Request: fold
Amino acid sequence: MINYFDPKTQLNSNTITSDLNTRDLGTPEIFSDTQVTLDIDGVSVTVAEGTSVLRAAALVDINIPKLCASDNLEAFGSCRLCTVSIEGMRGMPASCTTPVREGMKVQTQNAELAKLRRNVMELYISDHPLDCLTCPANGDCELQDMAGVVGLRDVRYGFEGENHLDAPTDSSNPYFSFDASKCIVCSRCVRACEEVQGTFALTVDGRGFDSKISAGQNNDFIDSDCVSCGACVQACPTATLMEKSVIEQGLPDHSIITTCAYCGVGCSFRADMQGEKVIRMVPDKNGQANQGHSCVKGRFAFGYATHKDRITSPMIRESIDDPWQEVSWQEALDFAANKLRSIQKNHGRNSIGAITSSRCTNEETYLVQKLVRAAFNNNNVDTCARVCHSPTGYGLKATLNESAGTQTFASVLEADVILVIGANPTDAHPVFASLLKRRLRQGAKLIIVDPRNIDLVDSPHTKADYHLKLRPGTNVAVLNAMANVIVSENLLDQNFIESRCDDAAFQQWKTHIEDPRHSPENTAEITGVDATQLRASARLYAKANNGAIYYGLGVTEHSQGSSSVMGIANLALATGNIGREGVGVNPLRGQNNVQGACDMGSFPHELPGYRHISDQVTRHLFEKEWNVELDHEPGLRIPNMFESAIHGHFKGLYCQGEDIAQSDPNTQHVQQALTSMECIIVQDIFLNETAKYAHVFLPGSSFMEKNGTFTNAERRISRVRKLMQPLAGKEDWQVTVALAKTLGYEMDYQHPSEIMDEIARLTPTFHGVSYEKLDQLGSIQWPCNEQSPEGTPIMHTHDFVGNLGKFALTEYIATPEKVNKRFPLLLTTGRILSQYNVGAQTRRTDNQIWHDEDKLEIHPNDAEDRGIKTGDWVGIASRAGTTALRALVSERMQPGVVYTTFHHPLSGANVVTTNNSDWATNCPEYKVTAVQASLVTEPSQWQADYRRFSDRQHKFLSEASSTRDNTK
Amino acid sequence: MTNSTSQSSMLQPLTHLVNLSQPLSLKEYIREGGYQGAKKALRELQPAEVLAIISDSNLKGRGGAGFPTGMKWSCVPMFEADDVNAPEHKYLVCNADEMEPGTFKDRMLMEGVPHQLVEAMIISAYTIGADKAYIFLRGEYHLSAKRLQQAIDEAYSENWLGKNIQGTNYQLDLYVHTSAGRYICGEETALINALEGKRAIPRAKPPFPQVSGLFGKPTVVNNVETFCNIPHIIKNGADWFKQLSPKSDAGTKIYAACGRVKTPGLWELPMGVTIRELLYGHAGGMADGLKLKGLLPGGASTDFLLPEHLDTPMDFDSIAKAGSRLGTGGLIVLDDQNCPVGMVLNLIRFFAQESCGWCTPCRDGTPWAVEILTRIENGQGQARDLDDLANLCDFMWLGKTHCALAPGAVEPLKSALKYFHDDFEQHIDKGCCPYSGSHSPSEIASNVAQACGGHAHG
Reply:
């Protein structure tokens, strides 16, 4: 029984669940219109045709013993424990592999079955260590449970036969170990790796008694293709695959369901705890976004939350050349408030602003924008979505009338043709990628538009049907060419267009797009994409029963990011691929709460629910609720804040949970802006890069230390539940409340649920959302209101939020960032599986072993031209700046294109990126920078300066700590 | 092959054209009456009509299980040419992974008259509507692979394979796939997995391959010998086929005899010939000085029978009634100077090694049988070992394991415990093997191998 938090009755207590094991029904759920009724042990059961006897029995609480079966894996029938007797059937069939039949009579217990099951257990135990009491799985071992269930009392074969008791343990993975001596070769791990994760890293090596689980070709786990998603550990019924944290600390005593704070998939996790200590994070079987799956980050990389680098005391200083001074919360807040008010007094009301975080909760984000609008009395609030998915907000609003993805993740299981543009799901959205790959293995077709050979292009048992390997920066030209094919070859869905779309806009678009200048042949020179391949791809997508588009930052982070998003929406409208399962336009959000941060009114021109600040009715609604007059002029966007700071107008910034100094483009420009300000207040869990330029440091709380909600890429609002008390004493929302109060603006909340109640009151798409309903339903996809009280999994099923779909004109205009003799290569940036964003979290975990430095990936041709070999130090120079990285020569790149990640601050990836940005939203053009790469012998000047500056700031931090120690 | 050329082609349809030194070319094969069955089927008969003839003929699978071929084929879903629900492909697969110890009949058919199998597969594929066919061949059968490929190449060049076969609308591609070598590949679903490039593990049934087989598409798998009957049945009719045998199991059967008999070898005889006739009439009886102690009638995975069963006809039903299985029809004899415990140990060691390792009873149970038998054979057995062996046999019996490998593995053991109980007890009581030192298990193995290999070409 899981008891959730009820703010009315259980203020400030934890939510506790007593059962560690959610019930496993043995085989996956089957959906069928035909129902079958059978008799199991005299109980009549009616289930969908195709359901296994094992599952049918479990549904009426008849629990047949089992070891190799699990309801997230296809049945195989290898352990032979779940055997039953069925009237009219020979022998004792395995109930997991036997489908139900009408009128079937099943017996799950009799003397012969008991004997058979005991025989099976006898064989297992005759080759298994008898160290239950000291085994880490003691109390959480299915083998142990089954030995009990079948009543095993004796092993007649003895323990002296041929055995595997001396088989070695593979401890190479930092998070789990593989103790082969305890393996019962049930293959659940192998099947989980194949069926759930889709990596195929594990196999069974050898045959007969020599069968053993092998990572790769008898590699250690760490040297195999294993991606450490944890699915095998989850699947293992014994102590063979076990979290090291459990081996070291013992089994958890209670669990709390919460939501992962990494990517935009928003996986639901069961935090297994001992007291306030998280022992392990296990993907929640009932999690509607992840359906019991996880990736290496959410599953294992949570140690950062209690890392020694956590700062737990507020700190202040007059100048960034001063050491930090640890102070009380009130001192820090007074210091900050005085600074902000004095800046406003001297430089005007608009001289300060704030940046909300896509990693914080909806409630926290909401409060920061409220603070800006109500207490700063301006609209200078922006969010990190500015630098990732702002074009999605703009582009989808303009075409589909709502700034959000249209589907659930599970919808991909109904897609027939999947178009992935500028996204690398296996690295950035791994849990969704597993779902996608499952669909591909079922036979769906895949088109990839990406300059690089990302893993999805060719991975085990899945392969892209087309890979349109475009030149970076030419998305719009490719999308237009696809649209041109659809129009000129008459592949339009006329019915859909006539009934669901604005005709004038369509006619205008049609005339525009059918012009031969957009044809694949005429754009091939720009895009580098073969016209035949492009035509075939367009046809495949247009003719699909269900065509679904998934895109990422490779679409948005361009000078024409918004045009690309609209181009994608055009394709979906033109082919009628919207408004039902299996289709849609799906932005893959980078951070856990990008969607939520945007929903919560983080943009300078929009109040929560994407309503323009100039709209009087909406503004009055908020003015009444907040008891304050609101400015009707939009405020500054992040890049405008920087510009304004450099010009001496913008002087004070409250930055919550973001690291603009590392994540924003043109680092030197950002640094100049930061050093131009008088008061920077950083609220974070670590002394991040931005905090090194700060005057006030307010210690933040990790997702484990607070209550709230995150909204993932599916518009799914999920609860974040407090696992432990905040290390610094305050949850982030409490800090904002306290800062507001110090500034003279009262915010009166006892619990984040009250903040959500306010959001729901003020926002039509959230009217029906409450913590109570979230606890009931598990999660809710907005819009959730009177029309759809339980939320909206699929959007635009009948209309586009009361409107017609609008085709948008998307003329291709080349980016001003061009290659020339000086800068002949195009740099594009991205991320990898094991690290997350600026790396502040993952760099403080064992994930470091997979990626402890950013490297420059370069095609062999380009490398040879420059005499570069893998491992060489390479200087990368752009019009904005210069940095140096080690080279990785790789055929994943196309000639002329280089790539790096930005997970490590010293890498200075963003020293190189430029100020170019999207025409509509100022989203930076991270994906296209003209650079030169050449061998170097030392770090760049910027890197040398950075190291000096950073060392000095760390010294200031350690001095602050020592002051505190002395005073104690 | 012995005795083949002197017999009429109508009495030994499968083997009368066998020439192990130089098989018939396509032209020669046609001159001898080949491809007439295929021509008749493709030109004159609808698939349903071919199926009706095969069903009527009462042909049963010759791979060991004896399942009626017509019934197997009738489970394949059939579609009209323009049916949108029709699968992209249907597959026909020939199980030529002949790994049953003591069995080597398919090898003779493939090496001696490869066109017969090619023709058979054309007709069969046409009947079930398959457009792709595979011969899944035991990896060691290099010569078979070479000769089959030659025959297939010839068939392509003469338009017996490929598009618009012989001017009809029918098309078929036929491939030889050589196995990486596992006994379990003889199990049809393990074979399908192997053919898909996966680990050779039997699949759970249902779904049956006829509905969801190779690459999830409708698939029929039959044994080489089963297929080779098809052209003759089509050419000569079901009634002709039925009258070949005095028993209800129609047609002929290729029988083998090995072990210490006078003339080990292969014979195509009417289905239902008695064990006595096979052993004494064709194999020349036991080698000099030896007496028959027991026999395995259909390969290594069948139950022992005794001299008292010599007059049992070797058809599916009669052998089953006697307490064993016809299996592949490969008779292995046990003489009175060979140790039955050693022989059973040798066999079960083979099966333990060849277990795919997926299901627990087989993976962990067969090694315990080996362990206990080894103990007994070495004179270290205890009285309770016999109970444990009996328990293992019961535990791994048909219907309790994932596939038929483990039940097959314990068939000789179970029957040996019944018929040769005294031998087991003597081992335990005396603390040693009561047979003289000249018959270690490995010697028996080499004896069997020699008999089988040596005379298959003979």
User: Anything to note?
Assistant: Chain A touches chain B through 37 residues (CB under 8 Å). The longest strand of chain A covers residues 882-889. Chain A has 30 helices and 37 strands. Residues 315-388+594-764 of chain A form a domain with the Rossmann fold fold (CATH 3.40.50.740).
